[in-house]
Amino acid sequence: MLRSKIMAFSAALFMLFSAAAVQAQSVFNANLSTEEQQKIAAGEVLIRNTGSVSKLCVNAVNPVVQKALDTTKAVKPAYLAEIILVRPYKEGIIEQFEQLVTDIPSYVGIPYYSEHNGIWVDLYSSATTKSFTQTAEGTNAQTDLYMEPFGIITTDIHTECLPDTYYYESRNASKVKYNGITCVNKNNMRSIIVIFRDGDNLVFYGIGAVNAPTFSFIRDRVELSFMNRIKTFCNFFFEKLQQSGI
């Protein structure tokens, strides 16, 4: 009888500590260096070129992060980067961010530095919305974005706006071509942004993922052309929030 009580107590204690361990799981994993952790703690935007899903620095602490990771893995990216910002929690920030990223005409004129040409250009020179549906739960849209030198890229945009969590995803709904040659097949380029509460903070976490050829003679150009554009896009909106005083 005593032994049964001890075993039952031990099992309950194990479950208690297991639950506590899950709740206490850190947002970020050991892939972050000390210098990177310090940058995040200082409220700065951190951009990491990882090149591999296994090197991403975020743990699947909630369903939106899990969805972002699962989507990224499904793309099987050859080029991968993450963008991170942690700021004190404030009411209304998620709704404010939804307004920013679903204002598709504002995509035109986002400044982008072309390392290949050494000049500043527009990330997108035009944005033509083909469909747009917005509810309290989020947004679904399709737009034609003109990006030099690739021309028009038809892009699907999907958002989910929930209490204390947010999910944004854009994907190319058409092939991305350069001089008539396909660089990225349909659905193989994703920009993902999730926002979620972590105690007294809000975590803004972006992923840029591209499944594209890795031939040595084009790898550097592809990385500059696509990954820098995705990082520019995410960073632009993170910085706009910072400028608004979050």
Shape: globular
Strand proportion, as a percent range, falls in: 35-45%
Spans of at least 5 consecutive residues whose pLDDT stays below 50 are 5-24
The largest sheet has its strands arranged as: 1-2-12-11-8-7-6-5
Query: Strand-and-helix sequence, N→C?
Result: HHEHEHEEEEEEEEEEH
Instruction: Please compute the radius of gyration using only Cα atoms.
Output: 20 Å
Q: What is the mean pLDDT?
A: 85
Strand-pairing-aware structural class: alpha+beta
Helix content: 25-40%
Biggest sheet statistics: 8 strands, antiparallel
Query: What's the helix count?
Result: 5
End-to-end distance? 59 Å
Would you report the number of β strands? 12
Description:
The longest helix has 28 residues, at 216-243. With 246 residues, the chain is α+β, with helices and mostly antiparallel strands. It has helices spanning 2-23, 34-41, 63-75, 93-101, 216-243; strands at 46-49, 79-88, 111-114, 119-122, 126-135, 138-147, 151-162, 165-172, 176-178, 181-184, 189-198, 201-210. 33% of the residues lie in helices and 36% in strands. The strands form 3 sheets. An 8-stranded antiparallel sheet has the order 1-2-12-11-8-7-6-5, with helices on both faces. Strands 3-4 form a two-stranded antiparallel ribbon. The chain starts with a helix and ends with a helix. It contains 5 helices and 12 strands. A hairpin with a 3-residue loop joins strand 6 and strand 7.
